[in-house]
Amino acid sequence: MTGRAPDPALVDEVIAWFDEVRRPFPWRDPDRTAWGVLVSEVMSQQTQMSRVEPKWREFVDRWPTPAAFAAASDAEAIRAWDRLGYPRRAVALRRCAEAIVAEHGGEVPADPEALLALPGIGPYTAAAVCSFAFGMPVPVVDTNVRRVLARAVHGEAIAWSPNPRRDAAEMAALLPADGERAAEWNAGAMELGALVCTARAPRCPECPIRGRCEWRGAGFPAAERTPRRQPRFEGSDRQRRGRVLAALRADPGGVELDRLAERLGLARLVPDELDAETARHRAAADSLVADGLAEREGGRIRLVGD
DNA sequence: GATACGTGGTG
DNA sequence: TCACCAAGTAT
Predict the structure, then answer these.
(1) CATH entry, A33-132, from 3.40.640.10, 3.30.160.390, 1.10.340.30, 1.20.1260.10
(2) Average pLDDT over residues A30-54
(3) Is there contact between A214 and strand C, defined as CB under 7 Å from any strand atom?
């Protein structure tokens, strides 16, 4: 964390902008619950808010408390998760609900360390729950915030790579002492990164802090390094896992491993490819079992708890 | 520190 | 079209 001290006026201007344009997500309602906030944050991990909103409504309508969700089955949780992605989050969230019931009397703990110890809760989510559900003055740093601070404060085109200690220190340097105001700054910085200071095509003319942006002031210098490329999804094991899990979601009874290829519509491949793909899909099925998303019984595989 | 982990929006 | 990117976490 080198370079100039951050400009505190940034904070006021981002908060003022956020108060005007904030998107009215239900987990921002005054009547929100800490559980609702926690669910929204887990659903939002690597997932755009626009995709989260409809699923979140269904989810918290069905399971309004940690105790309610703890009583569900993993299979129900995975089906409710639908196509949000990273379905392991659904299982982790259910384990999290169980731990909240067992260790915290059914109440989401207002404590960063306690939250961090829960399944599926990392540094970002723990901080987000403390700030947004409980109004604690803690820094919340996601990919948007890293990018906003990299540009506005450090004059760099792209964010530094995630680093919990550095992330917290960078944001703490700007954090208002008042918890409610800190939450506005945390959420405002994220919103700015999501709506204006975007990765690919930033809308600088609309930016509330364009006059204070070091990146703009320096003439928008290009990134000095290129981020790692995301692996191709098409043809990946990730894609195969997704297809196998989709079949299991559709079949409460599970599927015979011998029928997996047929069930997945692989039958029209030429024989060599069929064999290879069948083997890979079986491996994907095994990895789902290893990850606790599915279970095997003899020659059948099904969703956990189905 | 690097890698695996889903699915869909965006330019 | 297609590569990039997304309110990260666990190992």
Answers:
(1) 1.10.340.30
(2) 97
(3) no
